[in-house]
Each structure stands twice: as C-alpha cells, then as structure tokens.
Amino acid sequence: MSGGGRHRRRIRIAVPVAAAGLAAAVAGALLMSSANAATALPTPTTKPSIAAPSVAELQKRVAGALAGDDTAGQAAKKSSLSAGTNTSSVDPKIIGGSETTISTAPWMAQLWYYDDKGTTDESDDLGFFCGGSVVSPTKILTAAHCVKGYNWYKYGAVVTGTAQLPTSDSSGNTDLHGGTVSLPLRQWNHPSYSSTTIDNDIAVITLDRPVTAKPIRMTTSGDTASYAAGTQATLYGWGRTSSTTQDISETLKTATLPINSDSTCTGAYGSEFIKGHMVCAGKPATGSDTGTTTACNGDSGGPLIVGGRIVGVVSWGVQDCVAEGAYSVFSKVSTYVGAAYPRVDDTNLSRDHKADLWVRNSSTKTGYEKDSTGTSFAARESLGDWDGVNVVLQTDLNRDGVQDFVVRQSGTGDVYWSHYVWASQSWSTDKIFSGWNTRTRIVAPGDVTGDYLPDLLSVDSGGTLWIYPGKGNGTFSSRVSVGTGWNQYNSLRGHGDFTGDGKTDLIARSKTGSYVYLYKGTGKSGSGAFSSRVKVRTWDGYNAFDAPGDVTGDGKADFLARTPGGTLYLYPGTGKATSEIFATRISVGTGFQQYDIFG
C-alpha cells in the first residue's frame, strides 16, 4: 500500500534466496564522592569515546537502503512443497494481515543496510532491509541471514519507535516519522548458521546506546506449550503484502498464524525442515493472495509471538510466499535462547563480546582493568584509586550497554551503584543499600528471576540468601528469600548462564572439603530460584575466584580461579549442567597474588 500518497517502493528485502560520540566511558573506574560517605568513594576516570557516525550519516544509510533492491543472506538452498513443484527461493512478508500501531508492538525494529562500495557505479551498491525485535535497551534480536557477512557497524542503521517506514524526498532528506535511528555497534550470529540450509538462523545486534522502545522477552528454553499445534501466534512486520508485486508495506502489519506440528511442516518441506531448530506456522497457502495469510519478503528477522514472548524469528518460506500448501518457517527460539541470551547480557568493560577482568592491588589500592583477548588478558590499565571499599562487582543494572559497578564501602557497609548517565555523558553514583557490613556475600549474577532485568543477591550473617529483584533503573523490589544454609560456602560467584539454557546460574565452594557446586537457575524467584545443587569440582588449591561472564566470547559463562602462588586459571564453560561444566583449565597469567578484590 502506498500509505498516504507517499512514493511506493519496490524493494526485495532481507530473505535468503534459498528454499526458503558514542560518548561512553567504556570502562571507567567509577565511583563519585558522596556527602553520606564517611570515606570518599573512588574517583571516576573515563576512556576515550568510540568513533561513531553522525545522525545525518545514519539517515543517509537508511535513505540508501530505501532505494536498494538487494536481498540479504543469499544462498543456494532449494525447496519443494510436493513432487515437481519448484520453490527455489525464500521470501519472508505479511500477506493477508492488517495494519497496526507501534503502541501494540513497541519492540519492533527496522534494520537498514546500505553499502555504496565507494564507486560512481550504482550497480554495485548493496541495500536491503530486515525486521527485528528490541529484547533489551541496546539489543536487537533478528535472523542470522540478515547479519552474517555484513558489516553493520560500518554500513547499517536501526530505526525504532515508529510503525512507519522512513521516506526520502528528492533532496535526500529522510523522514523517520517519529522514529529514532541508532548505530549498530557490534553483531553476533549463531556460529553454526548455514546459508545453505538456513539452519540456526538467529542473530543479535548491539546498539551503541540504549533506545526507549519497550523490550520484549524471548521464550524460555523449556517452553513446549507455545509450540503445541493449533496455538495462535502473532506475526509483525513491514514485508510484502502481495505475491504479485515487490512493494512492501509502509506501515507495520500484523497477522495471526496457528502453530503447526513438526509432522505437518516436514510433510510440506521434507528434510529441509529441521525439527527442533525450526517451527512453521499458518494455514497452508492457497496458491494466491486470496485466502492466504503468511510472512513474506521484508519480514525476515521479525518476531512470532505467543503469550507476550518471542517464540520464532522469521526465517524462510517459498518464492512469492503463496505457493499452494506452503507455510512460513521460523527459527525456534526456545532452542536458541541459550545461545542468544548471553549476547543480550554481555556488557563488559571494553564493550566487545568478551568479559573483562577488574582487579584491585592490595597494597596501593589501585583498580585495574584487564581486557579479555579470548584466551588471556591484555596488559592492565589503571582505573585510579579504589581505597575505602571491600566489594566491587561488575554489572549493568540499567541495561544501557555500559558496564556499571556496585561497591560496598568498608567503614559503613553502605552499597553504591555507579553508572553512566547518557544525557550528561558523565558518571553518577547512587546509594542503593545501607549497613550491609554484615553481609557475607554479595553477588551481581545478572537476571535471576527471568524478567530480563539484572538482580542482586546477598547472604546475611545468618546464612539466608536473598534476591533483590532489579527494576532496570538501579532500584529494587522487596527482597525475596531463597533459603538458608548459604554460609557453608566461602565463595559464591556467578555472572550469566553456565548451563546453556539462557538462565542465570551460581557457583558455590564449600568451606569444608572445598567442593564446588553448580546451582542451576530456573528463571523464577524465591525458594525455587535455583535447582538442587550439583557437585562439579573439588578445588582446594585456590584462594580466590571470579565469574566475570563470557571471557572467551563463545556465549558460555566462564570461571576464574587463583592459586596462593598467584597463577590465575581460566575454566572455559562448556554449557553443560553436569560435572563437565568446565573444560580443561588454561593459565592466563601469574602475579595475581597482588590483588585482593576481583570484580
């Protein structure tokens, strides 16, 4: 549809041709003085900003993509619905849907990609579009075929907060219709994505700064009810609205599709439908637009939603989308949440995909940042004087993409949250708890309760473990008891998912026997927040531990342990919920006996 007389675009969009300043103080040592503090908190320091293009440049990328006619994720896969039926390319659109507003789907994102190749010949320009979903203020869930092989930081732009596609006039001015354009800072696609089979078709794009669009969550790894045949799912997108034209919808559309059984999908696509990795939805297409409701070109990367959570990501279908008997095919999110969620909760000091190390020298009280290279840590960088505190935790309580610090003041036991304020481009410190000097453990593991908002844990002097559910702004709901007996451990650490199910876990070491236990997270609160412990190691040769997150960058949470002699070992996570939770240890350096606090 032309949409209020605006120019009607012809654009082939984001489907595999197959079967189917940034002004972030990136590390910052952070804590500002407080009038309530008996001893001044550490003084903040910052690092140079990451070079970022102007809003005008991002809008230029959008305008270039608007004029493009290319397709993302080209592949050689072919599919057939029945013998003798050639369906040699995939086109994901919404045909048969209805227009909707951004208030009904505030998480919807437009992904625009434009590379003019730097030549005067326009024929080599590359421009295309994909859909996506805001799953955290700086994170966009989309399809791997929209991401793999493209440099989104250099050539991409993401628009959120509007149901309208942008328009450009003859002078090159771009109207975002109330939307916000953002820079894709980095990208991740599933490492096993295949452009031939369109398998493992899921990706996450990280924006350079948070957007105000309300996020939506992915479904959980254990979700089976959402995939029961006949379950009504909702699809959103800007894709083609007819099989007879390449025109896409200038206004967000939605449609309701029933989930189909695996046997139905296999009956339509044979071995090209990969059970467990894919889900198909919708009634069988009729062979024409009439009577067909389906995804099509332009919807790739967008969400299929059940019960307020994303259960599928638009992946592939048949050419022109309406071949008789065809169904839309989606990546099955319950299978991939364990791989994708670590990318949603991956904030670190250097803002790449690898968790970094924060340490404090015991004699000078100097704090240091040591950035991960994947298998070791780079040379340390001073972050200033960190005297007067006895706990330092790396986290991101407001999910703004810049790592925060939670610290406990030595004298008062008061706990402070130091965080970056985008509006003022400076650091601010807020007191979040008072008198925690008797707390034996404080942990910032990420999202324990399953609401995508980071939480805090603490163990009191009596051994009770408490969850403080985060609200995403540095404040917390009323604490909830997990249970007692937690003072039997001399170390309680965790940051992220050790078992590969997308839920936050804990690692504890006993005072007696030095046994190491895995407490697998359930995504719930209260006494059911963690499953029964599993013994995974006996570690009696270490005297300090740290769990900063995914050090190696493979999407699995890792662990660090220090010997009394000062050697620091990396235990790479395997993603298994058994005694094989860690791979063989790797030495990442010596001299670590000089540090008394690990973040």
UniProtKB/TrEMBL annotation:
Keywords: Disulfide bond, Hydrolase, Protease, Serine protease, Signal. GO terms for molecular function: serine-type endopeptidase activity. Its EC number is 3.4.21.-. InterPro entries: FG-GAP, Integrin_alpha_N, Peptidase_S1, Peptidase_S1_PA, Peptidase_S1_PA_chymotrypsin, Peptidase_S1A, Trypsin_dom, TRYPSIN_HIS. CDD domains: Tryp_SPc. Residues 1-37 form the signal peptide. GO terms for biological process: proteolysis. It is an enzyme of class 3 (hydrolase). Residues 94-364 form the Peptidase S1 domain. It comes from the Bacteria. Belongs to the peptidase S1 family. PANTHER family: FI18310P1-RELATED, POLYSERASE-RELATED. This is Trypsin-like serine protease. It comes from Streptomyces sp. R41. The lineage of its organism: Bacteria, Bacillati, Actinomycetota, Actinomycetes, Kitasatosporales.
